[in-house]
Amino acid sequence: MSIDTDTARRVAHLARIAVKEEDLPDLAKELSGILSFMEQLNEVDVEGVEPMTSVTPMRLKRRADGVTDGDMQVKILSNAPDAREGFFAVPKVVE
Questions:
Q1: What's a BP term from Gene Ontology annotated to this protein (predicted)?
Q2: CA gap 58, 66 in Å, rounded
Q3: Four-CA torsion 57, 42, 2, 12, nearest 10 degrees
Q4: Most buried residue, 16, 31, 49, 86, by CB count within 10 Å?
Q5: Which residues pair with 84 in a beta bridge?
Q6: What pLDDT shows up at residue 65?
Q7: DSSP code of 48?
């Protein structure tokens, strides 16, 4: 698939990138190269290949999912500019 300068201009506009008019032919050539590489990837036979999440076959470390209180209310509220009754106090914004 070949990209012309008009398509490259439209892609640049959609991507919200500023491309000078004299740079559009080079951008079109680069986009065409990317698309031809993608077409080459379509020729690869991936029948029976499992999807991978990593290049190394390892499982994520897991921990027990337990609910804890944390017991850090005083420590957390010490950073608040205004705390009342164990909560962050904020200015009223709705009448």
A1: glutaminyl-tRNAGln biosynthesis via transamidation
A2: 24
A3: -30
A4: 31
A5: 87
A6: 85
A7: T
Q: Let me know if 8 is exposed, middle or buried by CB neighbors in 10 A (0-12, 13-18, 19+).
A: buried
Chain segment 30-64, per-residue pLDDT in tens: 999 999 999 998 899 989 888 887 788 777 788 88
Query: What stretches of the chain show up as alpha helix (H) in DSSP?
Result: 5-14, 24-41, 73-77
What is the value of pTM for the model shown?
Answer: 0.51
Round to whole Å and give the CA distance between 86 and 74: 8
Contact partners, residue 5, CB within 8 Å, separation at least 6? 24, 25, 28
